[in-house]
Records
---
Amino acid sequence: MRTTEDKPEGTMTPELEALLQSAHEAARNSYSPYSQFKVGAALRLAGGAMVTGTNVENVSYGLTICAERAALVRAVAEFGPEIRIEAVAIANLNEAASPPCGACRQVLAEFIAPDAPVVFPASDGVRVMAFSDVLPLAFDMKLTGNRD
C-alpha cells in the first residue's frame, strides 16, 4: 500500500512506520468470523510504551469491539487511567480503507493529544493526520461545565 506522504496532513516517520507494523501484526489475532475484516491498532503512549489491540466480533454485531478501543482498554488496564496517547496506527489485512470509526474517535479523545498523529489506510494509501483533524468536534464535558 502506498503512502500519501506528500499530502499536507502529515508525514510517515520511521516511528510511525514501526507503529503501523505493530498494528498489522495485531490484526493477525483478530476474531472476525463474520465479516473477515481483520483490524489491528497500536498506540504509542507518553513514556514510550506501545500497546496493541485487535477487533473482536460477536454474532450480535453491536457487541463487537474495534481494534482501537481494544488497545485503549488494554492500555488503561496495564498502565492506569492517567495514560496519554502520543500516536495511533490502524492496519487491516483486507487492503481496505479503515479510518477509526466515530465511536473509536470519541473514546480516543479522552486520552489523546489533539496534535497526535493517527495513521490509517485510506482509499488513496496510508494517511497520517493529526487527531484534531480526524475528530474536529469531539464531545468534551469541559465545555458543559460538568467536569474540571
---
Amino acid sequence: MRITRLALSTCLAIGAVVFIARTATAQDAKADLGKTLFMRRSCSGCHAIGKGGRMAGPDLMGVTARRSNEWLRAWLKSPETMVKTDSTAKQIYNEFQMIKMPNLKLSDEEVDAIIAYLAVAGGGGAPSMPKPKPEAKPRNASKNG
C-alpha cells in the first residue's frame, strides 16, 4: 500500500513537471512567432521596446501590464475602430501626432503571438487590467498622513 502511494505520488509529480514544461515550451514558441511577426510586419519601424527615444508609435515596454489582453487584441485586430470608439486609443492617437497604425489584418493566432512576445520582451509579464489612477489628496490633508 505504501509503495503504491509513493509510486502514484511520483507519477503525479512527474506528470505535473511534464505538463508545466510543455506549457512553457508552447508559450516560448508563441512568443518566438510573435517576435518574427513583430520584425516581418515592420512593427519595429514605429515601435521600440524599452529603447527610449521618440518614434512614430509608443514604446511598448510594459504594455501587457498597462493594457488588458482584450484591449490589446481589439487594438491589433482593428486599430481604426479603436481610435473611433476607445478613449485610451484616442488619447494615444492624439499624443502621437495622429499617425494611424495600419490594420495588418492579423489572424487571432498572430495577435496572440504578438501579445505573448510583448509580454516577454516588454517585461510586463502576463497581461493585466490597466492600473487605476491614484486619488488626489485633499488639500487639508496633513503632510504626515
---
Amino acid sequence: MKGNRTYYDILGITAKAPQEIISAVYRAWMKALRVHPDLGGDEELARTINAAYETLSDPLRRASYDASLESEKKTGRGEPRRRAPRAIVDVQIALCVPPDGNWFPAQAIDASSLGLKLMVAHELTVGVHLSIAFTGSAAPATDAVVRWICKRGASGSWPFEAGVEFFAPVPDILKRLGCS
C-alpha cells in the first residue's frame, strides 16, 4: 500500500466499522463523490478504493488482512506512523541526566520537532528527564524525556540507541542542530 496507508485509512473508516458502514462509504466514494472512472473520477484512486472494499467487505479476507496488520505491528515491519515530519541527521549533541548534572556526548541521527533518535554511550532509563544542549548553538538547552532505549547490534562508541521526546515542540530543531 502506498505510503503505509491501510485499507481502513483509504476508505476513511475505523477498523471496527461494520459491513454496513464499509458498503455505504464505498458507495459514497464511487457515486456521490464521483471517484468512479465512468463518472469522470481518477482510475488509480478508484482501483485503490475497489481493492480496499473487496478486502474489507469479505469477512474471511478482512480477518486475514487484519491479522497481517497486527503481525506487522508485532514484528516491527512497516513504517510506524509519525506525528511529525522527520529528518535524518548526523550531529553531536550533549545530554545532562539529573541528579548528578554531568553532561555527556550523544549523536543525534533522526530529528523532528517532537523529539530525537540518539546513539548514546550510556544506557538511559525510560522515563528519565534530561536536558539536551545543541553543540555550536546559542539556543538554550531543551528538556526531554527518554521514551525508549535499545542495545545496538554493533559495539563501538555508541552501543545504545534511544528515543527522546521534547516536553514542548521545537519547531526550529534543524536550525538548532546546525542542519539548515
